[in-house]
Structures are given as C-alpha cells and as structure tokens.
Input
Amino acid sequence: MAPIEGSSLRQAVQFAITTEQIGAEAYRRFARKLGDQPEVAQVFAQLAEDEERHEAEFRAIMESVPDHDAVPGYAEKYGYLKAMSISEFFSPRAGLTRDAEDITTREDALFRGIELEKASIAYYQALREVLGASEALDAILAAERQHLLKLAGMLDQAD
Output
C-alpha cells in the first residue's frame, strides 16, 4: 500500500479503510496458518472481525468528512497526515504483505500484528488531529490500542 495519494481528507480516510481491509485479510491468513495453535488462531480470527468492523466505521466517518477548506491550517495538517502515511509498514516492499506466506511461527505473526497496530494507531492519531474530535475515531483508536496490548501480552507469554 502506497502512502496517501492526492490531497483530500476523503483520500486520507480511504487510506484508513484500506489499512483495515489489509489488516483483516492478514489476520485471517495468520489464523489459518496457525490453526494448529487454537488460542493464537482464535485471537487472530477475532482481530480480523474487529478490523472489518473498523472498516465499516471508517466508511461511516467518511460521510462526515469536511471539505478541506473548512479545516483551518489544512495544508500543513494534511502534509503531516500524508507524512504519517509513509511508513515501512505500509510499503508493499517491506510492509504487512511482504512475505506473508513466510510467516510460520506464532512469534512471526505476533510481531507482524504488533507492527500493524502500532502503524495504524500512529496514523489514526494523526487523522484525529486533522479531523478533530470524533467518538467513532476515538473508539477505533481505543480498540486498536487493545489489539496492541493483546498481541504484546501474547508475545510475553511465549517467552
């Protein structure tokens, strides 16, 4: 996935939708690959469902995205948001989809999930700064933080 293209807030929210779609698919793949470890597979299956819900929530947020001329200091804020979309994690070369089929261990999948959650949280926080207060976006951020904690906790259990 490439960084945000264009210059509209709608494109920035679409980037979040795409992030959720990619995350859901990756988590489904991790669940299938780790099917011999039911506890871990179940967590990834649940995360995939959560990401699908977040996608729907971002689609609803899209309906209330203001025109960029209604956002004070838009050019600078959008530049910041665009910069936050530039992440090794989001790049096709080194991101979530890189060698996804090579993930064979619980730890590989957990580390990849942690990377996704951290990159998503950083981007969604930047999106919140540009869009302003939003109960829906705050709820998504809280859920993503819980995902991060869950995955990190499972990684700790593996040690």
Q: What stands out?
A: The chain has five helices and no strands. The chain has one domain: 9-158. The radius of gyration is 16 Å. The chain has a mean pLDDT of 86.
